[in-house]
Amino acid sequence: MLKDVLAGWRRFGGPLAGALAVALREAVLDGRVRVGDRLPSERRLAGELGVSRGTVVAALSRLREEGWLVTEHGSGSRVRLPRNLGERYAPLSVDGRGSLLDLRRAVPAAPRAIVTDAVTRALGRSAGLLLESGEPGPGLPELRELIARRHTGEGSATRPEQILVTSGARAALALLVTHLGPRRIVVENPTFFDSLATLRRFGIRTVPVRVTAAGWDDDQLATAFREAAGGAALLTPDFQNPTGVLMGSEDRRKVAELAARYGVTVIVDETVRDLDLRDHPVPEPRIDRAVTIGSLSKTVWGGLRVGWIRGPAALIRELLLDPISDLYAPPPMEQLVACEVLPLMGRLLGQRRSELRRQRDHLAVSLDGDDAWSFSLPQGGLALWLRLNGVSGEALAGKAAEAGLSLLPGPVFSSDGTRANRLRVPYTAPIETLDRVVEQLRRAHRS
């Protein structure tokens, strides 16, 4: 009975109708009430909960206005998720409803309708898959074909045998550095903190190259590739994380030339390549002869653990012969779900880009004109990279954390502990939450 599901609902406090509405919404979010369930009649629900019918009517009216219920004449009310909640980029946890607002990770919620439909379709055609062993391998043939087709469509002719499916981009990076075994690896300064953690875990010496709003430091690029001769380089030329900078075609040619001259394997992280927020997104040409890694974590959902490596077919064969590759393979059912999602990426990316562009611009306008910091508007990616005036990133992040706002300071993204006056502020949260972020940042800076 619904009264058992809602036991203790009065603890939410305030007017009874408001507390009941909150309790019902929370019950939907944690699965105690399922999307699609029909609620009892207003009279019956009032009797079960021991409140007036007016209280129930007011609570249900509020939920109906917010999009949590749909009422059909003569059939009662049925539970649903609000459209803007089920399709938006921001996870529910960054809505700022509680006292803690954690923006240390810039990650999306799943596009609910697309993913649930994909799961249903994948399950419906899983008979042949379930009759096989399910053992790890290079990936489902259909999925490798779809990924190869996307690369080819962007100007990089690719065959399925050039694709190895992994359980995410970090798994792809770990497999590559384990197999290649570089003693030195060129990295950007700053760069994504998870990538740095992976390289440190394998004890690889990093050789940093400075990246600013103006791009990659040419002199440091040449020096770093020379120092890492025979090793590897990990670069994010498309909307670099955390700066959001896009590498120009001339620098891409220079990287390819340096790699050939010094025998360096270039590994390109493409996890945010699709998050191009320019008015007319056009994929940049890839760095010649680079090995690329990608995933669905930043565009679709981190819970769909599907990534990939794209490289020469000979390298993919070598990786498959490495026993450790089995540890980095995703479950076949998740791959089948990805097969259903990838054909819909055009529509999904349009929604994602539009939402992120709107949130980026709102955050930029809100932060602009303040002497406490400065920044360059990125052409894509997920965050603003603030240059702070008169305070370190660690100090400001620490003060903001005291008020319940968690952000990452610059040194976290640096292989040598520099970037002390920087702070990453993701614009992946809803606009109302971003307003709260700006307010708390200003208060923390003043203090």
UniProtKB/TrEMBL annotation:
Keywords assigned by UniProt, alphabetized: Aminotransferase, DNA-binding, Pyridoxal phosphate, Transcription, Transcription regulation, Transferase
PROSITE patterns: HTH_GNTR
SUPFAM superfamilies named in the record: PLP-dependent transferases, Winged helix' DNA-binding domain
Residue ranges occupied by any HTH gntR-type domain in the UniProt entry: 14-82
Gene Ontology molecular functions: transaminase activity
Superkingdom of origin organism: Bacteria
Similarity remark: In the C-terminal section; belongs to the class-I pyridoxal-phosphate-dependent aminotransferase family.
Protein name, UniProt field: PLP-dependent aminotransferase family protein
Organism: Streptosporangium amethystogenes subsp. fukuiense
Species lineage: Bacteria, Bacillati, Actinomycetota, Actinomycetes, Streptosporangiales
